[in-house]
Each structure stands twice: as C-alpha cells, then as structure tokens.
Specification:
With about 120 residues, this protein is an alpha+beta fold. It is built from 3 helices and 5 strands; from the N terminus they run αβββααββ. A 5-stranded antiparallel beta sheet has the order 1-2-3-5-4, covered by helices on one side. It starts with 13 loop residues before the first helix and ends in a 10-residue tail after the last strand.
Length: about 120
Amino acid sequence: MPIDPTLPYDDQNIFAKILRGEIPCNTVFEDDWALAFHDINPQAPTHVLVIPKGAYVSWDDFSAKASDAEIAGFVRAVGQVSRALGLVEPGYRLLANIGMDSHQEVPHLHVHIFGGKPLGPMLMR
C-alpha cells in the first residue's frame, strides 16, 4: 500500500527493523552510511536495495535533512554496490519511489538497483 511521504518517520517500518537487526537480510554491502541487500521479491536477475542508515522517509526528506557526509556516503554506496555487482558495463537502472503516485511502499528511503538483463522502456506507455 503506498505511503504518504510527508508523514513523520515510522521507526517500525521493515527497513528500520532490518537496520536494528530485528529482521535478517541478505547483505551485499554495508558501511557507516548505507546498507545494501537483495530484494526478497526480485523484479530482475539482479535486484538490490540500498538504504541509508539514517531515519529518512523519502528522497525528498533525505535531500532536505541529511548532512553532506550522509548524502555523499549514500550516493557513493550506490555506486560501489553497482560496480561490485558488475553492472556498470552492461548497464543498470536506479529507482527511488517517492510517495503515493509512484507506489512507495516502505517509509524509509531506498534505491532499487536493477540489472542482469535488458530492462526495457523506463515507463509503461
């Protein structure tokens, strides 16, 4: 069910629980700024989620409130994960859903990394 990204951060969301170690994940990468793990319902041969360790509802929330170090660390983590997965040469897609119209389902910023096959057009026509 899509969420309202203007609401306050909910520390009971699934990604907050993953960050606290209450729910396991198949970790791909972790540093001081981000955690990356395989999506439990992959939509491509490679489908990894990258989340910041801070409590941010959406990209909008993150870009407005995160420190410069958090922003740089998170963006670098997305790049590191993509390179480590061997996705740069064949290509990959990044997706961050924000709000109701895009069907954001978890109220914690997350970037999807898709790859491993031709992904087709960006939006359904």
